[in-house]
Amino acid sequence: MNKKLAAVLSGGTALLLGLTGCSNDDEGNKKLDTWAKTVCDQMQPQVKKILDANQSIASVQTEEDSKKVQQTDSAAFQVSVDAYKALANAVQNAGAPPVKDGETSQKNAVKALNDLSTAYANLKKRSDALDTGDKNKFAAGLKSIGGDVAKLTNQSSEALKKLQTGDVGKAMAKQPGCQKNSLSPSPAKS
């Protein structure tokens, strides 16, 4: 019943890992490296929370008890709300990366992360309002929520990609908090 939602959320995880991992290059710009360290040090714990939330949703994908699915999804959505807000604050508080169009990239990334937080808050409200007494209606509601998560992921990915391109991406890739292997999730079941 929850398989499609879990699959869509794993796409959101891929987006996060895309934000936090880039090719490694040792060219250094001290200011840029300092900026990347500031962001990445705050990013890793938030990304881990989101990955764990997605994993909790995946863990109930075969659960037959609609109430348990609803409670798990609701809690996971709230974790995502808080974590995306914290990520937006981390990027905002770090200031613009010291590169060409850094301020625009920062603003776009902050907006995308805040939009994700708001959207997950809305998903939580919708999930909480689903009728757990009717399995068919509940499943249809989950499917609708999953579709909205997919749309949201696509809309937000562009600004996030822009933040992690070029020299900014290279600087972020050098930081332990932004390396893919430190944030790799366990594979999601489909």
Properties at a glance:
elongated, disordered C terminus, 0% strand, mainly alpha, 190 residues, 77% helix, 7 helices
Taking all Cα atoms into account, the compactness measure Rg is: 17 Å
Tally of individual domains: 1
Largest β-sheet summary = none
Span between N and C termini? 11 Å
Poorly predicted regions are 20-28, 181-190
Number of separate strands: 0
- Strand proportion: under 5%
Query: Helical percent range?
Result: over 70%
Structural class: mainly alpha
Tally the helices: what do you get? 7
Order of helices and strands: HHHHHHH
Shape: elongated
- Averaging pLDDT over every residue, what do you get? 78
Protein name: Small secreted protein
Region (Disordered): 166-190
Biased composition (Polar residues): 178-190
Organism: Streptomyces hiroshimensis
Summarize the structure.
This protein is mostly helical and 190 residues long.
Descriptive overview:
Helix content is 77%, strand content 0%. It has seven helices and no strands. The protein has one domain. It starts with a helix and ends in a 7-residue tail after the last helix. Residues 20-28 and 181-190 have low confidence and may be disordered. The chain is elongated and about 60 Å long. The protein is mainly alpha-helical and 190 residues long. The chain has helices at residues 3-20, 30-59, 66-94, 102-129, 135-163, 166-173, 180-183.
